[in-house]
Specification:
Layout: H1 7-18, H2 24-34, H3 40-53, E1 57-59, E2 67-69, E3 76-80, E4 86-89, H4 96-104, E5 115-118, H5 121-126
Parallel strand pairs: 3-5
Antiparallel strand pairs: 1-2, 3-4
Helix pairs in contact: 1-2, 1-3, 2-3
């Protein structure tokens, strides 16, 4: 059964594409400005549905609110330890040999997540490290 594409879901997905790795609260703020009748609960429920269906990634960053990413293609993230900003990192993934080695020991890989930690350019500049 195909999921119904409502106007609310379209607006919420548009927010995901517009904002940079937003939290559910940030998505709600953006959506509320565009369509004030969409409730906070609807935004949280729809984001959870997007993540469950594979339409968005749910990013659990230690010490921070869950963030969402509309880019579901395999990629990594860089996480600024000062401001919390997340950025996509286009690095080649693991080789087929890596997955074959996992399979040989009886482990089926369903997905993976790699996160790099450091300082973004703005925070480096603020600290005088530019």
């Amino acid at each position: 059964m195909q999921e119904r594409q409502t106007k609310q879901k379209q607006i919420i997905y548009e927010a995901l594409q517009t904002l940079d790795h937003p939290t559910a609260t940030e998505v709600y703020g953006w959506v509320h400005n565009v369509c004030p009748t969409v409730s906070r609960a609807t935004v949280f429920r729809v984001l959870g549905g997007f993540a469950a269906s594979g339409r968005a990634l749910e990013l659990r960053v230690a010490g921070n609110e869950v963030r969402y990413d509309y880019n579901t293609m395999p990629h990594y993230h860089a996480h600024c330890r000062m401001c919390g900003r997340l950025a996509d990192v286009g690095v080649k993934g693991f080789s087929e040999e890596t997955f074959a080695a996992m399979a040989a020991c009886g482990f089926e890989v369903e997905g993976y997540s790699i996160e790099f930690f450091g300082l973004c350019a703005d925070c480096k500049k603020e600290m005088g490290q530019a």
